[in-house]
Write a structure and sequence with these properties.
By secondary structure, the chain is of the alpha/beta class. The protein contains 5 helices and 6 strands; from the N terminus they run ααβαββααβββ. β2 and β3 form a beta hairpin. It binds adenosine-5'-triphosphate (ATP) and magnesium ion. The site of magnesium ion has 5 residues, from α3.
């Protein structure tokens, strides 16, 4: 079986039956690395969830799987909205749209070009941009687990990955 198809099968598994439902941090990170390792390019992943839900933690893990070496540079950006990380197969773009106030600001970022050109695009707080993202965007949602402080409930919507 060709490698590409094995990767696609693995991704479908990871996003389906293989996804942890309420992972602790180590489990979420291991899952994120596995997703990054089999992610096809181009790909767009959105990450939703409250402050501190673990979006950036998961972005960092996915970047690890994608082969980003400088993982300490994967942070919630304070001033910049876009960050770029080097990886062997092309740069990863990490957007955090939390501070975005208007569609005009999105336009000023050159957002349409970012979406068009990014090899892998990871978007925290995507609400402002949902209409601009491709239909095969992988949507991840994290929330605090009311039953356990160190766990997060992970929900996934990835209609086109089977
Ligand atoms: N199961 C877990 N999964 C992810 N993070 C966890 C978990 N348990 C505890 N944490 C901690 O919760 C924090 C999550 O912070 P992180 O910056 O990833 O959240 P965020 O969703 O990006 O927040 P923000 O909206 O402020 O950008 C980290 O300090 C992490 O160590
Ligand atoms: Mg964050």
């Amino acid at each position: 079986m060709p490698v590409v198809s094995v990767a696609a099968d693995s991704l479908a598994y990871l996003l389906g039956r293989g996804a942890p439902r309420a992972p602790d941090r180590a489990t979420l990170e291991a899952w994120g690395r596995a997703v990054g390792a089999v992610l096809p390019r181009p790909a767009v992943i959105t990450l939703e969830g409250d402050l501190g839900a673990g979006k950036t933690t998961l972005v960092r893990a996915i970047c690890g799987g994608l082969g980003v070496a400088a993982l300490e540079s994967v942070t919630s950006p304070t001033f910049s909205i876009l960050q770029h990380y080097d990886a062997a197969e092309g740069a990863i773009v990490h957007a955090d749209l939390y501070r975005l106030r208007s569609d005009v600001e999105l336009e000023m970022l050159g957002w349409d070009e970012v979406v068009r050109d990014a090899s892998v695009l990871l978007v925290e707080w995507p609400d402002r941009a949902v209409n601009t993202l491709p239909s095969d965007t992988i949507q991840l949602h994290l929330s605090h687990d009311p039953a356990a402080r160190d766990r997060r409930v992970l929900r996934i919507h990835a209609p086109s990955v089977r």
